[in-house]
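Annex B.
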Amino acid sequence: MRTTHSVASLRKLFFSVVSPIPVLAMVACSSDNDEPAGIDRSGLSETACVSRERPLEKVKAGNAADYLALRTQLYRSEPGGPVPSGEPTTYSSVGTACSSAANQAKCLKDLADLRPAIVPGKLGPGIPGPSLSYLVYTRRDEVGAVVSNEEFSAFLRPVADLDTAAFLVHRNGYDLACEDTQHNARVSDDGFDVLARKGDGCGKGHDITENLLHVDKDGKIAVRASVVVEPADPQCTYGRKPEGFEPAGAVEEASPLGRFFAIAAELEAASVPAFVRLAEELAHHGAPAQLVDDARSAARDEIRHTAMMTSLARRFGAEPSTPDVPQRPVRGLFEIALENAVEGCVHETYAALQATHQARHAEDRRIRKVMERIAEDETRHGALAWNVASWIEPRLSGEERALIDRARRGAAASLMNTAAEPHPDVVHVAGAPSAAQASRLLHAVAGELWAA
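Ferritin-like domain-containing protein: predicted structure tokens.
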């Protein structure tokens, strides 16, 4: 059995088995939901984009810096204020750390120990606190951090190329998707004009806007024009206050759609500490840093997913319950692999497939948008599960590998044999697969994913 499936291979597989949206359904829905026209692109002759996975890859290590790296650091609540939780994650870098330092050993240690402070504030119990995204650099023997947008502009000035201007636009919260191949930028004598979107459509004041921005040589960004292309949903809110949640039994009184999204929100919330634990256990057992970083990144994704599902649940009249996930000791490799085989390689991989189906078939436009974002993240989480299996399972005995393979195939068989029929509203409005559709999807991917 293959124990590795990349994000690209999973996405290709999912798209091949999820049927396209029926043309008639698209026409029927589009009449009321067309996006307003954006800003005129005439006069824009360049294309600027920033990779979500490697945002620094086109940025020059300016100011004689040897090395630039973007990090994120999770924090947890303590009586004296937030403190770092675990090691920081480096998710993009250019150059070579400490390459021109006179004392490279000290430089590298200072870089590893660098932790910016965070402003104290309330953190939710039982889940990681806020994550701080920042840049670290080395320049001869100097080691430093760049945190605020103003500091980024000052550090990278003079802005001499479009790629660096695009990075500053991205850093200021604008989206420059590399999937958009249209011209969206131009170079002028006094800087760069860049077209970019902002906002997530969730909550008052969070309209999705298209913006024409000017970035000058000093890194200052001015908005030349802005158009709302998708009004925000005022019922959507990020974050939760545990004391305001109702007990799980209240979910039964909600609509079928409310119950569906409330259950989803609870499962997403429970996934946060599960990924945090996985990251800690992988680090404990000496797994590659990329696996540890990916697990931490998945925990952050699940915090967002919880907010999205909570918003949808509330929109349909339900209040999700707060999961109680007790802390557990570090497990051995076999126990980690066994859980990963069932929960990751089967259940989470299927969740990514189901999210892909919902992103295509939900009649509600906002649900489609949410599921598009979640499907992308969950596909990465599915690939992470297979990468964890690829690292752990060769380290186990033949007998242990046979038990894990049997558990994985058993979990897949159970999924295929127990598909329940969702409420019609859940099928049509939320786009969840019917029992027949779920069976078809599962059988279509089983040979590639779970066959012996």
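The first strand starts at residue 67 and ends at 76. The longest helix spans residues 256-284. Further annotation is deferred to the next reporting cycle.
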